[in-house]
Amino acid sequence: MEDQNFPIPTGALIRQGGRACFRHLVNTSPLLIRVQSGTKIVTAIDKPLRFDAGAYGLLPDYQPLTMENIPKAPQQYQTVALPVPRQLFEDAYARMGSIAIPSTPLPARSSNMPDEAAVLFEYCCQPGNLARLPVAIARARLMELITWFALCGAVLGQSRSPRLEDRLRQMVEIDPAFGWTLRHAARSFNMSEATLRRRLAAENTGFSEILSDTRMNRALGLVQTTTLSMAQIALEVGYDSPSQFAARFKERFGTSPRHVRNGSEPVERIGTEVERSGADVLSG
């Protein structure tokens, strides 16, 4: 990874007032996490993993996850998350030498994290700390953190050949408010619209579905990690109408964005599967 192209990651505090379960969430970078309050239950391939307050863990990239976040009154649910480029995991593991890399990327919990590792995690998550360092030092700090997680049992599974769906998610994530169309995407991938549609169909998905889902995943992150108004979040993910945004959010996640943030209203149903209609109903 060339230093000039290295993205300096920034930690985020995820806060949630109401209990909710979010299905089919897809991260485009691996996440190192620490649950500060409440409980997190992450399920991948029908294998649930529980993280109670104080637990550290690793969430893989491009693996659909079901995440249930459970506040413990009177506190909100809170987790600190640090996205780290996959290449750094691979570089760190190569330097470790003998380490078993899981064949399937699954969530993993770190056990008995030493104080040195906990301090380093907090340092890397604090805004601006890594950005103030020379890039080579920032990378070294992150690789040390990855090594600590691995020594404590949280190892990132092997990468797979990127699907077209994954590449499309990455593209939309850069600017979710842009008026993306099938034509824009096809041009970006140097293929015809028909070819793009056909190749996505072979992955059992479609352009509008991925566009909508990527926008809603981004919206969920903004609800959980910022104090932006719902109207501002709607604009950030490509909706001019806050009411349309709220309806689409509830259709996708089974609860309103205000419940996620404040826990101020009952949940009618917890989570929904991503629809397979290929239609972006309102505008993941």
From TrEMBL:
Pfam family, one: HTH_18
GO CC terms: cytosol
Domain HTH araC/xylS-type: 166-263
Transcription recorded as keyword: yes
UniProt keyword DNA-binding present: yes
UniProt cross-references to Gene3D superfamilies, sorted A to Z: Homeodomain-like (1.10.10.60)
Source superkingdom: Bacteria
UniProt region (Disordered), positions on chain: 256-284
Bias (Basic and acidic residues) ranges: 266-278
GO molecular function term, any single one: transcription cis-regulatory region binding
Keyword terms: DNA-binding, Transcription, Transcription regulation
Name of the protein: AraC family transcriptional regulator
Species of the source: Rhizobium fabae
